[in-house]
Amino acid sequence: MDATVIISCPARQAEATALARRLGLPLVSQPPDEGLALHLAEQHLELLPLGPGDPGPVRPEFVSGAFGHRRRAGLGAGEPLARAVGMRRHGARRVLDATPGLGRDSFLLAAAGCTVLACERHPVMATLLSDALERAAAEPDLAETLARIELRCADARDLLGPHLRAESAAPEVIVMDPMFPVHGGSALVRKELRVLRRLVGDDPDAGELLACALASAVRVVVRRPASAPPLASSREPSLSFGGRRTRLDVYLPA
User: Fold this and answer.
1) Helix 123-136 and helix 187-200: axis angle, to 10°?
2) Residue 186 contacts by C-beta under 8 Å, 6 or more apart in sequence?
3) Is residue 141 a contact partner of residue 164, using CB atoms and an 8 Å limit?
4) Please, what's the b/e burial string for 72-109 (b: 16 or more CB within 10 A of its CB; e: otherwise)?
5) Domains, in order of start, for the chain
6) Which of 199, 206, 203, 198 lies closest to 249 in space, CA to CA?
7) pLDDT at 70
8) Residue 114 binned pLDDT confidence (cut-offs 50, 70, 90)
9) pTM of this structure
10) Residue range 128-138: mean pLDDT, rounded
11) Position 172 confidence tier, pLDDT thresholds 50, 70, 90
């Protein structure tokens, strides 16, 4: 679904005009009755769902809120994500996050010492994530973490395959978190996933992305619903790290 750019801060009019032009979206001063809007507020950019039952805005956030508390707690070496990427045995890794979305896995891995290339193919999501990273850069205690994250607006499939190993500083791990149905979880998570699905869709090509990742002959980590079958129908995961609602399937290079 396309979005509209709206502005509620007159001081950012020029910025909103440039943003709308770059994304090829209409710029309006008042939100429409329904759909999605990319809302340029005074201090941040957010995705605003419109219409009856509007669940409220969604944005990546690394400084304040629930995730701000989560990232201050850190990513321990014994946590599922750290174990799935192999940090317990190998330490900090070079990671390609092929589906960063709101950027939480990328940020936690970078905070734990990993170098992360986050490839977000949807231009609006990439713009939201870029805004969040820029806002976080204003926090002195986050400078070291942010220096380990590179964001590209690109389809990760264009970077994957056998040629990836020939590149300098090629990733050692590929992380995927494709969109999946919302069952359970906190009210905040359910709201975020519903809104993001309206923007980016259901990731029907997740299997193709996984095939490209497996062809790269590196460690691949796929987040799945806890009760769902593996994404790779023709290959069982080498390892799995389960949680209450999601599971991390790990495919080791053959």
Assistant:
1) 130
2) none
3) no
4) eeebeeebbbbbbbbbeeeeebbbbbbbbbbbbbbbbb
5) 3-50 (3.40.1630), 65-251 (3.40.50.150)
6) 206
7) 65
8) very high
9) 0.90
10) 94
11) very high
SS (H, E, C) the chain: CCCEEEECCHHHHHHHHHHHHHHCCCEECCCCCCEEEEEECCCCEEEEEECCCCCCCECCCCCCHHHHHHHHHCCCCCCHHHHHHCHHHHCCCEEEECCCCCCHHHHHHHHCCCEEEEECCCHHHHHHHHHHHHHHCCCHHHHHHHCCEEEECCCHHHCCCHHHHHCCCCCCEEEECCCCCCCCCCHHHHHHHHHHHHHHCCCCCHHHHHHHHHHCCCEEEEEEECCCCCCCCCCCCCEEEECCCEEEEEECCC
Question: Residue holding tokens 């992360």?
Answer: 116
Token pair 């340029």 is found at 40
Q: How many CB atoms lie within 10 A of CB 11?
A: 8
Q: What is the dihedral of CA 126, 127, 130, 136, to 10 degrees?
A: -120
What is the share, in percent, of the chain residues with pLDDT greater than 90? Answer: 48
- Both structure tokens of 71: 């990232």
Does the pLDDT of residue 222 top 90, yes or no? yes
- pLDDT bracket for residue 238 (50, 70, 90): very high
Averaged pLDDT, 155-174? 78
- CA–CA dist 180, 183 (Å, integer): 9
Residues in the chain: 254
